Amino acid sequence: MSFINSDAGLVARVSAVSKSYGSSSNRVIAVDAVSLGIRSGEFTAIMGPSGSGKSTLMHIMAGLDTPTSGRVWLGDTEITSLSDSELTVLRRRRVGFVFQAFNLVPTLDVAGNIELPFELDGRRPDAEERERITELVNALGLGERLTHRPHQLSGGQQQRAAIARALATQPDLVFADEPTGNLDSRTGREVLALLSAASSDYGQSIAMVTHDPIAASHADRIVFLADGRVVEERERSTPEEISSFMLGMERAA
Ligand code: ADP
Ligand code: MG
Fold this sequence. Notes:
Number of strands: 10
Largest sheet: 6 strands, mixed
CATH topology: Rossmann fold
Bound molecules: adenosine-5'-diphosphate, magnesium ion
Number of helices: 9
């Protein structure tokens, strides 16, 4: 694979990564020899039907799970050789997460949730980071919600708080797993526009996993996954183009 030797401009990459579950008789191959680079400063969608291995691949790229075989890098760091405690520190400092279920801490208010990554890293945001948090809070329309706890917020507001939390530390890469999966379509579109703007306005690298062609159409680049394998890569595409590719793939299967 050519990019293995020319990884300039890649914020993350995996080489020949596989992940299987179970023993030989009931073995499930969730990810099957995937090689892939995530470009720096871009919004990348990893698109595929349910069960195609998207979440497993994302968890491996983010250091939340280990592959059965293959190698994984975040920037120049090969994470496949790190210990659990080194991985924990790397995730805290260099990666942000947005999940379908928002994953906010219910006992903390919005401000507390946004500052949590700093807290976990044993520090407080410095002046520059405070300024950035204020900017994010305003841009995401959370200014009036800072003292609210998650259960006092709508789904869209919770996801915007989760996005603020993911962006606050300016991580090398933000991973988003079906970030609009629990939102109505209008709120979902707003969340996608915010992710897209974080990438285009701030150069934030984002890797989003989704099965939704509309969500994927907000990305700069789309990597298609089927049965644990990368089957296609496209530059920005319309929802119609993405749907028709997915449909063609299902027909061929
Ligand atoms: P997606 O996110 O695209 O829906 P997943 O990565 O969650 O797909 O799952 C891919 C495949 O791996 C599925 O067949 C799923 O059932 C299987 N799988 C995922 N996690 C586990 C696990 N912990 N144990 C056994 N099988 C799993
Ligand atoms: Mg999934």
